[in-house]
Amino acid sequence: MAEKISIFVKADLSLKEYIRKTLIPSVAVSVVMFIVASLLSRIMVLPLGVKLLLFAIPMILLIYAAAYPYIAADSKKISINSKIPYFITYFAVLSTSEMGRSDLIKVLAEDPKLGAIASELKKVYVIVSKLHRSLPEAFRFLARRTPSQVFADFLDRLAYSLDSGVDLKDYLFQEQQTVMDDYQTFYEGALYDLDVFKEIYESIIISVVFMASFIIIGPLITGQDIGRLGLYVFAIILAAEIGILLVIKYRMPEDPIWAESRGIETERDRRIKRAYLYSALLVVIMALLYITVLRPRFSIPEPFVIALILTPLIYAGKVIEKEEKSIFRKDENFAAFIRSLSSSLAASGSSLVMVLKYLSAHDFGSLTEDIRALYRRLAVRVDRERAWDFFIAGTGSWLVGIFSEIFREAIRMGAEPDYVGKIISRNFERLVRLRRKRQQSMASFIGIIYGLTGAFAFSLAASFQVAVSINNLFGKLQVPTEYVGDIIHVIPPTGLQFVMYIMLALMILHSLLSAMAIKIADGGHLGMSLYYFVILLWIFATGMYLGQRLMARMMGVGGSETAAQLILLLLR
């Protein structure tokens, strides 16, 4: 039956709303753009590239409008699959409380941290509470309409178990392994997609560089405007880079490293803000130092000037990298802390504050100070929820934050502490292991980006230097114009200078977008992109310098005489 369910149902889209808000506006805008493009092409003489662009934009809008339901369903599937370990953990620990099953579904459906799963469970709650159908029927109904196969399989198994009279607590305890196995398969599949995407990324960059090289040299043969062709190169490379960034963003699982802001400014936040400020001030100082001291005394190539001025940004990136590593260390200690906390609560029967007082005397690595601060705030008995918020903000970890909330809510609703500790610590450790695999995959991805950046810069600069050398050669040839015809086309110096500016702009944009792609792929803080941004700038600058120098030397040693003899021979 799953094949008969409409894609609009799976994507939570109303057909009328889709037609009214997406399809009709997209078609209307596309028709208008087609008419405008046709009129402009008749009235004005437009370059071929501009014409293609004018007609391509409305086509892209139409394709997007047609594919929108499938894109929405796929995004929803990834969101559900990414949140399913938190859902199954929360579901399992709450099943030991005194709540009824309908109330349990209501609590899960109202929890924002479950994302798309919460919106799916709202349907179950409505079916049970408003339509008075059984819970297994509601689960089967939802299983046929969810875009996530992992979630659908879980709902089908759960419905069968409830029909069979299996105790929900015992079933969910056993089901943890199955669901986490499914999540691991999904997660590792995404990492495999990243490995495949590395190959695609290499192919795209190599193809774009190959095309750019011909476009740069092309005006010498065709006589076209090198400035316009340079803009085409810029547009092609920029589109490829942005496309790569978007694919990474929407295909990788949602697994952020940093906790969400809770309106609490921690010392970590203050350190990062100071690092941003210092980096910005150092960039200004470095620019002034170059203008007043270095430029009058030294002839530094433009790529190195840009890299040198922007180098202080690496300080902010390094500070954020240090904080991110500290978050990873806290993640490593959290499972042991939760195990100890829950087992002590179950064994002693004491209050949470008394157990924390006992545990705060023990060493939990980098998490120790956060645990002691949590105990002091809970001991004051002013606001327990806010005390946990400060603990989460202090750790800065997304995983610690979401599992701490699950633990806090489960204990508050009367769940069994020992059971809660076992479930949370086991699932938490499994997620940490998956993150280690992600970091290993990212290490090779970073290496590929570094290598491609150097090759990209070298090829681009080498092609540009070939164009410069041949252009200088053509300009020096003493051949009458009537014999030359359309064979030789000399590019004006302003055109070559414009292409150099385009290459410098590509240097900055490629480095920035590639650095952002790294951090989006690993789920880290985007501010750390500054660290990779500066490294990529220097790699690009070095590649450009080597490409121009080596090609200038090759074209200069006997190259001019040979080329001149060849051209004269052709003219005869």
From TrEMBL:
It is found in: Cell membrane. The chain crosses the membrane at residues 23-46, 52-73, 204-223, 229-248, 275-294, 300-320, 443-468, 498-518, 530-548. It is a multi-pass membrane protein. The keyword RNA-binding does not apply. InterPro entries: ArlJ-like, T2SS_GspF_dom. Keywords: Cell membrane, Cell projection, Cilium, Flagellum, Membrane, Transmembrane, Transmembrane helix. Its main location: membrane. It comes from the Archaea. GO terms for cellular component: plasma membrane. Residues 87-215, 337-458 form the Type II secretion system protein GspF domain. This is Flagella protein J, type II secretion system protein F (FlaJ). It comes from Thermococcus barophilus. The lineage of its organism: Archaea, Methanobacteriati, Methanobacteriota, Thermococci, Thermococcales.
